[in-house]
Structure formats: structure tokens, C-alpha cells
Amino acid sequence: MPSDVEYSPVGEGLGMRDFWLYVWLRRAAVITAHVTGLGLTLSICLLSRPGTSLFSWHPVCMSVAYCLCMTEGVLLFSAEGSPFCFVSRKGKVRLHWFCQALVLIAAANGLGFMVASKNVSELPHLLTWHSVLGVCTLSATALQAACGVGLLFPKLLRLSSPPLRLKLYHATCGLVVYLLATVTVVSAMFSDWFQATVKGLAWWAFLLLPLFPALVVMNQITNAYLPRKKVTS
After folding, report:
1. What's the short name of a Pfam family annotated to this entry (predicted)?
2. Checking DSSP bridges between strand 6-7 and strand 230-231, what pairing results, if any?
3. Which residues contact 37 (CB under 8 A, 6 or more apart)?
4. Contact 63/45 with Cβ under 8 angstroms?
């Protein structure tokens, strides 16, 4: 009789030299994603010149929420290149919740500043793809946070699904939210404000920067939760 189905380890079939090269490349990618998220956030904050107007706080809050806090909230679970790799799983979950709480707080403030700026300028709302995507991203973020509460307190909420399946659902929905946030950030590069502020090759660099952390996050979640090649004995 075949034994229980197992999952093959990452890097199976590689020679020792190729395996370590694979590990170091993954580690370099995660570290680069950390640096990219932080660098993009700081750059947008400098370009926005916070305090010069109500609108200036909108890109600051949103970049802190999604480019920094949400990215770090996911990457802290990475086994390669995370500054929290020596923290226990329980500790990482608490840090994840802290980061996601910051996401909600910063995003809510960013939305408030945007609405206030539009009202003061007497401009209509939801006229661009960026604004529509932004509302979808904020709604998905709130729903994902609510799902996280269910994962944290399944017995209290009397959820019937097993914990492993709930984790899979949470991770999958989280990936969708992160990719949606990435599309929203990229769409901001086409706004009148950003195109008037950043031009030439720098604009193309900003356009591509959010994509790298998204690829790293997508790779991390799919490797952690999607079935790999099955092996039997």
C-alpha cells in the first residue's frame, strides 16, 4: 500500500551547488523586496511634500499602508531574508496583525485626506480608474482583515472549516488583495499629479518598482500553500 501523500521539498532534483544557488537567489530577492518597498515609500513621501496641501497626505498614507506595512506584513513570514526569521510563529502572527492594523489605519487616513481634498476643491469623486481601484482595494482590505479575525478566533465565531483550510483561504485572498493593491499603486503613476511630478526614465522606474515585491510575495504564498509535486513511496 502506498504511504500517505507527501509534498516534495522546494529545490528537489537540484544538485547541491544548484540548490544553494537557488536558496541565495531567493534570499536576495526577499531582501531586495524589503528595500524596494521601503525605498518606494520614502520616495513617494518626499515627492508628496506632506503638509503642503490636504492631498499631499494621501500618497504618503497610502504608500505607508500598502508599499511598506502590507509588504512587510507578508514578508515577515519568509524563511529567507526576513529580519524576523528567528521569531516564533506565534510572534510572527502578532507582528502580522500589527502590520495589517497599521495598513487599515494608514489607508483610512489616506482616504479621509483624499475625500477632504476633493470636497475643499469642489471636485467630483470616482472619476478615474485609480479612484475606482482604490475603493475596491480598501473594501478588499477590510474584508480580508475580517477574515483574519475569523482565522484568529475560529472557535469563538463557530467556524466549521478546519484551521489549515482557513489558512489557505486567508493566504489566497491576501494574495488577491496584495495584487489588487499593486495594480492600484501602478495606476497612481498615471495620475496627473504624478506625471507632472516625475518624468522621463524616473517615471518608468517608479512604474516598475511595485511589481518586484508583488512577484516575491506571490512566489512566497504559492510556495507555502499551493501543492507541489506529490511523491509516494
Report:
1. Cytochrom_B561
2. antiparallel
3. 67, 68, 71, 72, 213
4. yes
pLDDT in tens, 137-188: 999 999 998 888 877 776 666 666 656 777 788 888 899 999 999 999 999 9
Give the global pTM: 0.83
Q: Please, which residues have CB within 8 angstroms of residue 217's CB and are 6 or more apart in sequence?
A: 33, 71, 74, 75, 175, 178
Give the containing element (helix H, strand E) for 230.
strand 230-231
- Mapped onto helix, strand or coil, the DSSP state of residue 58 is helix
Q: Which amino acid is residue 210, in one-letter code? A: P
Distance, CA of 66 to CA of 59 (rounded, Å)? 10
Q: What angle do CA 42, 79, 139 make, to 5 degrees?
A: 55
Kindly give the residue spans of alpha helices, DSSP state H, lying in 122-200.
129-152, 163-188, 192-197
* Cα–Cα separations (whole angstroms), residue 87 to 43, 94, 114, 180, 209: 30, 10, 37, 29, 28
pLDDT of 47 reads 95
Q: Is the pLDDT of residue 4 over 60?
A: no
The number of helix segments (H) and strand segments (E) in the chain equals 9, 2
Confidence of residue 8 (pLDDT cuts 50, 70, 90): very low
Out of 14-18, 42-46, 100-104, 187-191, which region has the weakest mean confidence (pLDDT)? Answer: 14-18
- Report the alpha-carbon angle 218-179-211, nearest 5: 75
Three-state DSSP class for residue 7: strand
